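Researcher: Re-running this chain for the archive, since the previous output was lost when a drive failed. Same request as before.
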Amino acid sequence: MKRLFDGTLQTLNDRVLDTGFCHTSFGEIGNVRCYGDCHYLRDAAECARALALTGNPEKALRILQFNLESVPAGRRYFPHAVAQDRSIIHDNIQTDTLAHSVLALEACGNAGADGEKISDLYRQMVSYARFLREDRFHAEYDLFDSGNYNEQGFDGSREPLLDIFSNASCFAMYEALARMAVRYGNVSEKEEFGQYACQLASGIEKHLRDPEKNIYRPAIRPDGGGDFPLNWLSLYPVRWYAPDLEPYSNALDLLWESSCNDWYGIRIPSCEPAGMTFRTMGKAVAVMLSLTARLGQTERFGQLLEFIEKTVRKPDNVWPEYWFHHEPPENEYLRWFFNEYKVWTPFSADPEGDYTVDSGNCEQSAVFIIEYLAAKGD
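Model: Regenerated structure tokens:
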């Protein structure tokens, strides 16, 4: 695992330019694949947080500065993805994008980065966090909607869902802003952002916690309806919101019962709903690793370690974006994806082949670094 950790961390360091531009997927450079030369602001913020946690907060601050400088004048939302000249490539709005930058900024401060720089970035992020509340908050639910583009298990839905991913990460954002207010702001800001976090916690518990199964629902619709299938979204928010671990433990049990694939005799959840279990997402595996450690589930933790050690081989030192187990179902998007990127023989067809995808994806790699440190207790 040390080789995998070190190699993955090296890709995060290597992708950041002096300007703060972060190649959130690389290209055929060394052993790293890519979808294009672009900087996804949320992915880059995850990279910044990982770098801050591993002792490179000044490089992390350059990424966060680039994020803020990529917001056009007069605009109050972070764009989705930009080029090196900060021109917008994808102009989708995702409510949670700002949250990741805020969490990375707090990590920079905790790692001893330049306090004056952090104070300046904090003040800028405060204005965006206030606007977010004005514009995307649904007071009748005490929840945010996800924006106009939700890729978190909803296939790029344009419907403004009230989802657990967005709300849990924004809860963590407001808690972080409240803590940073003590260093870089004032007492009134601490109280303001603490109140916002409490309201989100209330909304999550009232509307996104299933009282029968005691798990967190992936989402509800703005009209209060919606029945979304269990998937990795019921696990992932443990990174940001965990007043107790029981809902996450329950979701993990259900996924371990319903969605496992067999890898060399090791059964590991795909964390996807029926029809999508052909794939296992890298960041879902990373979160399962840290969650089983927190829960003291030594057998499952060991199974995950064995799975990782046996399957991450091409290359064996960089965290994958996906594992592909068997042929996907026929649908238009998947046909396009597999033809476009010429991927990747599924494990069931060739266990010795290349069935891991996009080694070097920034978000997946950064989440692995962050969650591996959490699993170790660092």
